[in-house]
UniProtKB/TrEMBL annotation:
Organism: Streptomyces flavidovirens
Similarity comment text for this entry: Belongs to the binding-protein-dependent transport system permease family.
Classification lineage: Bacteria, Bacillati, Actinomycetota, Actinomycetes, Kitasatosporales
Keyword set includes Transmembrane: yes
InterPro entries per UniProt: ABC_transporter_permease, MetI-like, MetI-like_sf
The entry's keywords: Cell membrane, Membrane, Transmembrane, Transmembrane helix, Transport
Protein's UniProt name: Carbohydrate ABC transporter permease
Amino acid sequence: MTHTVHPPPAARAEPPPPARGRRAPHAAEQRRTGRRENLAGYLFMSPWIAGFLLLTAGPMAASLYFAFTDYNLFDAPQWVGLKNFSDMFADPRWQKSVEVTLKYVVIGTPLKLVAALGVALLLAQSRRGQAFYRAAFYAPSLIGASVSIAVVWRAIFTDDAVVDRTGQLFGMNAGGWVGDPDMILYALVALTVWQFGAPMVIFLAGLKQVPRELYEAAEMDGAGPWRRFWNITLPMISPVLFFNVLLETIHSFQIFGSAYILGGQGNPCGPADATLVYTCYLYQQGFENSRMGFASAMAWMLLIAVGLVTAVLFWSQKRWVHYEENAR
């Protein structure tokens, strides 16, 4: 019996080794170029980095330390642990500031957003003088946070002023809102609603992105203005609405200047603490009473509260915010 011997398969030719001697200088040059580009980038970023470290990160770290100390801005801080937080929760005026702030946020933020959306719907329609109206409605948001506007607003709502006289024409009792503990907070809310220009511009940009074909199809099916608004406009601008709700809620928690000035000379934060918002009481404790450790604890508690509210809003967006597919 004969056996056929098959020749071994031909050895596969190995590719020649890479010419490392010629590529090394190219790779080294790339590394040097990358280092130079990174250095240039960090150089341009250095003003922001320095500002962040000196004006944001540094003060935040210092305030976190002061929150656990007894510090009056003049003597060396003394470590007290959680005493500032326990004193804060037991302080009736702190509880009052939380109550006033929540009331202001719950009332002022929705009214401001409703006004902004309503005006944006009107300005989204083509009409003469549209640019002028947009600028006119946006202007209060530029000047509304100034001290001078708060002083003027206080003068408008004092006794026998414009608002008081107008109210008397409709049978309302005489008396300015500023001196009334039950009404002064609503004067502050009115000032906030008057500054609806910034969210209005954002709503207007969102309305411009809604396809007109959807409105035309809904109109052909017999849908009225309210159904078109509820079933088309709101779902399509829900991401913009979520952004405005988030932004305005955070801003409402941070209100200070208007509330402090509206209270008046010698009576900051309103009669009977009617406009004692959280930041106003924080300012009083830190700079008027020289309790900087207590004020730092209040500031970190505010940060935690705003963080929790933000987390709840992000969690809730799954139920009412509608994004386009693959847009998130």
